[in-house]
Write a structure and sequence with these properties.
The chain has eight helices and ten strands. It is of the alpha/beta class and 226 residues long. The protein has a five-stranded mixed β-sheet. Strands 4-5-6-8-7 form a five-stranded mixed β-sheet, with no helix packed on it.
């Protein structure tokens, strides 16, 4: 059974809770959808744990930004730079060099969309859908980036699937989100409780002032956490 893990963001306790749940449910393979380390209190430890899995990895936008924070929005740069210090240059380079997409059978895996790792699909149909899917015609297109779990039919009958975020959900539900793909191809979205308040406190402790926004996002399970 395949587990889809996206947007972990250095939140080791949420990852540990998800792995316990997934492996208890029978998952023995993992698809890792990017944004592994930055903005959490445990960048290196998170990557170290992921390395123990039978997994395929792809790159997220934050993995690029951790290597070169000049590409990121200015408010995010101090946290990215601190996380790179904790992660180490060698691992930062390795994560930034991961592929932007992966295929398995009739399914395509990306971070944001086939055309971008910072532009993605929304839970409801949108005028940009046709542009974002471009020439891709998989049976199922799996992506993350928005930290919101949903599934719907997109252009050309393509199944759009966002498993949600392991480390920083933005749908108002603090529980870590991921999905299982069973042998018959059916998908089971799952949520797993963990101590999100303790993770937010750890972000403030490790990242200092730079960690205030990601800590609030963990606490409120919202992107707009001002």
């Amino acid at each position: 059974m395949l587990a889809l893990l996206y947007d972990i963001h250095g939140n080791l306790p949420s990852l540990e809770a998800v792995l316990d749940d997934a492996q208890g449910a029978g998952a023995d393979r993992f698809l890792l959808g990017g944004d592994y380390a930055a903005f959490g209190a445990w960048p290196a430890e998170t990557v170290e744990l992921l390395r123990t899995l039978d997994a395929r990895w792809l790159r997220g936008n934050v993995d690029r930004w951790t290597l070169d924070s000049a590409e990121a929005p200015e408010p995010a740069r101090p946290a990215l730079n601190r996380c790179r210090e904790l992660l180490g240059d060698e691992t930062a380079i390795e994560l930034a060099a991961l592929p932007a997409s992966l295929s398995e059978g009739e399914d395509l895996y990306v971070h944001g969309s086939p055309v971008s790792d910072v532009r993605s699909f929304m839970p409801d149909p949108h005028a940009d859908d046709e542009e974002l899917i471009a020439d891709a015609r998989p049976r199922r297109l799996v992506f993350g980036h928005t930290h919101v779990s949903f599934a719907r039919t997109g252009p050309h009958g393509v199944e759009l699937l966002n498993p949600g975020s392991v480390g920083m959900p933005f749908d108002g539900d603090h529980r870590a989100a991921y999905a299982l793909v069973r042998e018959d191809g059916t998908v089971e979205p799952r949520r797993v409780a963990y101590d999100h308040a303790a993770s937010a406190a750890a972000v403030r402790d490790v990242l200092g002032e730079a960690g205030e926004l990601p800590a609030r996002r963990i606490e409120r399970a919202r992107f707009d956490a001002a």
